[in-house]
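ugh ok fine here u go
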Amino acid sequence: MKCLALILLLFLGFTLAANEPIRTWTSADGRTLEARYLEIVGDKVRIENAQGRIFTVPLTGFSPADQQYVEKAHELSLFAEPQPFEDQGRGGVIITSAKGKVEVLVEKTDRYIDPKPRNVIVGESIASGSTLSTGKGAEADLLLTNGTLIHMSQNTKLVLNAMYQKVFKGTKQKASQLEREASPSRTGLKLLQGDLVLEVRKLGKESSFLVSTEVAQMGIRGTQFKVSARADSAELSVLEGRVDFLDSVKEQISVESFKKAGSTEGAPVKVGEMSAPEQDEVKNKVGRSQQASASIDLKRMANTVDGYSQKPTFTVRSIGLEMIWCKPGSFVMGPDENRQDSPAHPVILTEGFYLGKYEVTQEQYQKVTGNNPSRFKGDNFPVEMVSWNDAVEFCEILSKRENRRGWKFSLPTEAQWEYACRAGTTTTYSWGNTISPNHANYPGSKLKKTLETGSYSPNSWGFYDMHGNVAEWCNDYFGPYSQNLAIDPQGPVSAPAFVRRGGGWIASLRYVKAAGRIKGKPDRKERYIGFRVAFKKMD
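structure:
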């Protein structure tokens, strides 16, 4: 019998993965209601009727028989896949250290493009649906945004099945100082093979934590422990706390501190004592994870949760400006082969942002500024003949008109622009390494003018015309890159010119590439220069 799981669950409050059946509930005063059990939160029960309406009722409001039913249903829920919160908040993982070959395979988001494993970047955040793996002699430390610490040993493969977490306000408190989870969270991990050592913070009533293997299941209330998974066996070693263990024949026991439990396929659990070396191993690896996360504070964790929880699209209805959310993440920026000062280097973006699905159109520009300076007229054509100063003024006016508290419109940073342009790819262009007139409006298209925005296929994140049509102003001053890791880069403090990206219908092909960059003075206006708008949270 396969598909057993290790579960780590703290306190009450976990929704069943598979819906309980509709049944007749009887209240303490004899009234009845047809509904299914959802979850227990503290001393209350949430149930759902056939029409989808959800009720929250005190447990004592039901008959004794129904209270017993709830207790049994809750026991089963300890071993169910986590379900999202009503606010759909999502958590993630921050890579705090990596030694040797540590790779991530992100979840597929485009039906035409199969993602490939890549090396992790220490400090980056990883979203739910991704798979992390370590090779021979490799190891990694992870910090979950709820505060859980994980050490991955060599030859380990871990799937981030489900990570739900409520948005919270960050502080300067360090993650390593947490005693309780940062905010209510529901986590589902699948350990396919290898060894994990975890330190799970105390979870609240709404929270849960599930780690599944092919062979056994367990539940926890804030503890330090080790989980090992092989093809036909699983073992749990508890250094601190208590774990409820469900073995391969569905028998459940509790495993206390300094105990271990193992199960093989088709056999009941065997319980024993942790040896002194086994205890030291868990202590040492928890210590390594704590040290690796020492620099991460709750603000960084909160930004990650917020970044994974935003709506995927947003429209400024007053001008019909469609925007797409870019989650926090990382990529290798550059290189621009034509510039020695623009080498390839890793970049981490710790905060998400919205970016215009299309280049700003003439109609949108007219509605905001009252004029249209473009040479190639057309409501849905990109606005051009705009300087960097003009583009910034557009964003400032739009921010005042929309008055979205805590948010502002601006030009994207150069790193944000390339991150959205690449959309997870590493090729010369977002579609591959070669270009033709079927891909974009560039000099080789020989159109000698702009085209309506969206005339070509979008990249895998949904952005149009990131290559060609018009060059797009960025917020950064133009300056050299470093080969070192850059976190939320903003460009030089000052310089005589600003960055433009994406090339244009008349620009040299070198500038049309994903890494191509060119500079321009802030007052420069050309019939191939436009811009795209970002929408960001204010600091």
